Amino acid sequence: MRTSTGLLVLSNTLLGAASARHLARRDAPFDWSSLNSSTSLSWTPCYDAFQCARFTAPLQYSNTSAGDSQIALIMSPSNFSAGDPNYLGSILFNPGGPGGSGIQYILQLDPYFRAIIGPQYDLVGFDPRGVGETTPPLSVFESPAEALQFYATYPLNVNDSVSSLARAYVQAEILGNLTVQRAKDVAESVGTAAVATDMLQISRALGQEKVNYWGVSYGSVLGATFAAMFPQNVGRFIIDGVSDSHQWYFGTQDTSSMLDTDGVVASIFAACVAAGPSLCPIWENSTELVEARVHHALNALRVAPLPIFNNTDPAATTFAVVDYATAFDGLFQSIYFPYSDGPVATAALVALEHGNGSLVYSLSTEAQLDALSQDCTSSSEAFGAGFIDIIAPILCGDAIVDRHRSLAQARQDYAAMRNLSLFADTWYPTTIEACATWPLQSKDRFNGSFQANTSTPILLIGNTFDPVTPIQSARNMSAGFGGSVVLQQNSTGHTSLSGFSTCTALAIREYFQNGTLPAAGTVCQPDTAIFEAPSNSSAVGGVTISLRDDAALGLREAKRALGDGTAFLKRTWFPRWA
Ligand SMILES: *[C@@H]1O[C@H](CO)[C@@H](O)[C@H](O)[C@H]1NC(C)=O
Ligand SMILES: *[C@@H]1O[C@H](CO)[C@@H](O)[C@H](O)[C@H]1NC(C)=O
Ligand SMILES: *[C@@H]1O[C@H](CO)[C@@H](O)[C@H](O)[C@H]1NC(C)=O
Ligand SMILES: *[C@@H]1O[C@H](CO)[C@@H](O)[C@H](O)[C@H]1NC(C)=O
Ligand SMILES: *[C@@H]1O[C@H](CO)[C@@H](O)[C@H](O)[C@H]1NC(C)=O
Ligand SMILES: *[C@@H]1O[C@H](CO)[C@@H](O)[C@H](O)[C@H]1NC(C)=O
Ligand SMILES: *[C@@H]1O[C@H](CO)[C@@H](O)[C@H](O)[C@H]1NC(C)=O
Ligand SMILES: *[C@@H]1O[C@H](CO)[C@@H](O)[C@H](O)[C@H]1NC(C)=O
Ligand SMILES: *[C@@H]1O[C@H](CO)[C@@H](O)[C@H](O)[C@H]1NC(C)=O
Ligand SMILES: *[C@@H]1O[C@H](CO)[C@@H](O)[C@H](O)[C@H]1NC(C)=O
Ligand SMILES: *[C@@H]1O[C@H](CO)[C@@H](O)[C@H](O)[C@H]1NC(C)=O
Ligand SMILES: *[C@@H]1O[C@H](CO)[C@@H](O)[C@H](O)[C@H]1NC(C)=O
């Protein structure tokens, strides 16, 4: 009794220390409306150690009488003040999505960015138009219940039944009509060119003509757009997990995102075979056999879905059905973060083989929807952020080409994508398919080329195997930006944040601190393998370094903090955009 009481107190204390900030944030959200928005920045302390401000920008840069937007900003201040010779200015961040919150990104990942970058910069996050605390909000649904009603039947897999693809097609048409009726002006103002212009205005308000930046995933489209629009305002600038921006604006189909997706899966299977049966639960003696085992477990669900019925707490009984589409989606989510999710996903497959679908369900978008619907207490909560109600206005509204497609053409587009990867089944309906019927265009659009000599050369980062931003896209984009360098992180997953590499961390640090780019052709190894005994996971791998103690400590802290931030990144990339 005594022991267990003692343990309880002890673990509460540890838990309290680790999560107090998180809980405080959730339970007592900062009152953003108390901040006056203006075209100069005036910072107010918020969330313990941070500073917050609201910045006024025109809703449309092409028509400044169309109203204003109030952009929410957060800053993790540098240790040095503006007059200090060590102070290097601000870095802006974008977490991707589109629809990810830059406020939450800094709140959740500040320890990681700070440990990698060092103390010389202010780290600045902002909620892009239509997202989070930035106003006016993009509110298409009138309540969480209405959003749930819409998404509960939105197909996560277009090859689930004969009508799935068409169902997604007509639901996107409904969403487009709802958006026109309820949120037209905002939806026309959230395009990437407007957000890129906001970044310049924000930097100027911070006293900088040159924008320093680290954007991941869709943040690479935002970054490339900025660099193409304002090449003379490019400071130290990283785009990481790079999408093909040519295609983003000028493609009628998505022919690039899934180039390496099947390679991702093959590399995870190869890592499994190499790790052996004690570390990889679905181990077989060849990648072909691992693959066959996985498909066998999944295909069994096509004819025999599994029930989940959890009445551990009878007052909070939950139930669900795990079918092929749910499980397939859960496995797709897990390939974004194979270093953390690979062991979980493979254990989930073994559980499936034994008739237990709980674990695979927990990886799926449906489980995320359950969690979101429980978290939402009012319609103003960002229930839909990150799903197609924010993706479509940005992705479809940005397009220069006509992306309208008949249902028959949409089927063709899907079939072409399916030639690249099996995961087109789940990627297609939640991305470009919505553009087939999308009724709106952004008022400010970028219609230029991605050829520019930037005032500072750009650093691009690509993983050898990235499920939705293949390294080929980083190379294509680099070709247009004079002096830019592609750093290849030889890992599997989405963006460099999916797997820690000391070598990548040091390259980023050196670029931000000294402006020095890595040599062209640099390949950085990840510190760990996908399936690895826990005792090895603290090794610093892939690079020979002699670090001063504080730098080594900083990198260990970075690695730990990245682990803590992964749950946030998974929600940001929910359900699956870049
Ligand atoms: C906002 O402006 C009002 C009126 O000028 C002022 O009273 C208030 O202190 C300002 N709030 C902040 C947080 O600066
Ligand atoms: C600019 O916006 C205002 C307010 O919405 C509108 O009345 C006006 O027609 C717009 N001007 C142009 C050129 O679109
Ligand atoms: C920044 O300042 C804080 C408090 O003054 C100090 O604890 C911390 O070590 C400093 N960090 C760096 C990286 O210098
Ligand atoms: C749908 O899935 C089935 C089974 O995997 C496959 O045979 C078929 O080719 C897929 N449909 C398309 C259009 O690719
Ligand atoms: C959506 O709006 C368009 C344009 O007004 C219209 O042609 C179409 O019929 C509408 N769709 C539905 C399902 O009402
Ligand atoms: C792999 O296992 C299969 C049967 O499970 C066996 O026939 C084959 O010889 C094994 N191959 C190797 C290289 O061990
Ligand atoms: C079942 O529900 C309980 C809470 O009622 C929860 O703690 C537990 O994790 C759930 N089990 C599974 C397998 O999801
Ligand atoms: C399924 O596995 C989970 C652990 O992942 C366990 O909690 C649960 O009891 C199992 N369900 C059944 C029906 O065995
Ligand atoms: C984009 O620019 C090209 C030429 O630079 C022009 O022909 C085309 O009409 C423009 N498209 C749009 C939608 O503005
Ligand atoms: C898919 O690939 C096959 C074989 O390369 C080709 O014949 C077919 O035309 C492709 N389908 C589409 C829709 O691109
Ligand atoms: C990448 O890592 C794999 C092992 O995971 C290794 O076989 C390969 O040679 C590495 N490639 C490069 C370019 O370093
Ligand atoms: C930046 O350059 C200075 C001088 O060359 C060097 O001492 C320092 O270690 C470099 N910093 C990083 C992070 O590489």
Automatic annotation (TrEMBL):
The keyword Signal applies. Gene3D superfamilies: alpha/beta hydrolase. Residues 91-247 form the AB hydrolase-1 domain. Keywords: Hydrolase, Signal. PANTHER family: 2-SUCCINYL-6-HYDROXY-2,4-CYCLOHEXADIENE-1-CARBOXYLATE SYNTHASE, AB HYDROLASE-1 DOMAIN-CONTAINING PROTEIN-RELATED. It comes from Phanerochaete sordida. Residues 422-524 form the Peptidase S33 tripeptidyl aminopeptidase-like C-terminal domain. Belongs to the peptidase S33 family. The keyword Hydrolase applies. InterPro entries: AB_hydrolase_1 (IPR000073), AB_hydrolase_fold (IPR029058), Pept_S33_TAP-like_C (IPR013595), Serine_prot/Carboxylest_S33 (IPR051601). It comes from the Eukaryota. The lineage of its organism: Eukaryota, Fungi, Dikarya, Basidiomycota, Agaricomycotina. This is Alpha/beta hydrolase. Residues 1-20 form the signal peptide. It holds the Pfam family Abhydrolase_1. One of its GO terms (molecular function) is hydrolase activity.
